[in-house]
Amino acid sequence: MLDGVATAAAVKRELAVRVAALRAAGIAPGLGTLLVGDDPGSRAYVAGKHRDCAEVGVDSYRIDLPGTATEAEVLAAVDLLNADAGITGFLVQLPLPPWIDARRVLEAVDPAKDADGLHPLNLGRLVLAVDGPPPGPVPCTPAGLLELLVRGGVAVAGRRVVVLGRGLTVGRPLGLLLTRRGIDATVVLAHSRTPDLASVAREADVLVAATGVPWLVEADWVRPGATVLDVGAARVIDPVGGRPRLLGDVHPDVAAVAGVLSPNPGGVGPMTRAMLVANVVSAAERALGEPS
């Protein structure tokens, strides 16, 4: 098992050392969050990000708007976060209400303060970064996945990585990270329109499931001994008791087939939050003129 909780704890211990050095130099890293509405999953996720900041000594600030907020009110909040000198990085928690243009809101974020790494300028820098790390923030979940593989001793150079899901937050940027020189994976990006998805999945040395379809990947989708990382998450109602339950993309039976498994929950979620804090700390280091 690749333990995302333990690996994230190791990352945060290292971040705490970097934060202490920044504070000694007179720089206080700060994370801002903008949450619109009362979605329980989003609220819990934002709260976790603030707890992570407290663990490593990063200041954190939050703006919570009601679910009835207008696009103008959300953009005004983004302007406040852009202008606040105490905030070195911030995020707009998605999803936003359907009447708000999420792309317009994300584009309004100062690219230098883009803690999620989803601003078009930062994604463009990732596209151009063939020979090394991009000069700015990287999307958190792909960065967390790569960190989990590296620290777990899973080699990807020369191996076939199949990514199920072509979303902006995972599938598309993950392929860019894994194909950089020095990492050198061969990436296949598959999705709902890919013919015979199961057979494509069985070709993977490393299989990343990021579709949000509960238990899509069954045991016979996985080549014996392959590495499997479960990224997708969906809330379903448990028929016994009627309570919400979080399910990943990967069926529990896969554990008997995979050589290495990162489950969900307990895998990439903690790593995503840790890499978001890392983006905030790196932004403060860049402001100080230090390599990050």
What are the main properties of this structure?
single chain; 292 residues; Rossmann fold; five-stranded parallel beta sheet; three-stranded parallel beta sheet; 10 strands; 39% helix
Structural class: alpha/beta
Order of helices and strands: HEHEHEHHHEHEHEEEEEH
Mean pLDDT: 94
How is the main sheet built? Answer: 5 strands, parallel
- The radius of gyration computed from the alpha-carbon positions, rounded to a whole number of angstroms, is 19 Å
Strand order of the largest sheet: 5-4-6-7-10
- Classify the fold: give the CATH topology of the largest domain: Rossmann fold
**What do we call the CATH homologous superfamily of the largest domain?**
NAD(P)-binding Rossmann-like Domain
Shape: globular
Helix content range of the residues, please? 25-40%
Q: Tell me the distance between the termini.
A: 29 Å
> Under the CATH scheme, which class of the largest domain?
Alpha Beta
How much of the sequence is in beta strands?
Answer: 15-25%
Q: State the CATH architecture of the largest domain.
A: 3-Layer(aba) Sandwich
Question: How many H/I helices?
Answer: 9
Low-confidence stretches: none
> Can you count the beta strands?
10
- Structurally, the number of domains stands at 2
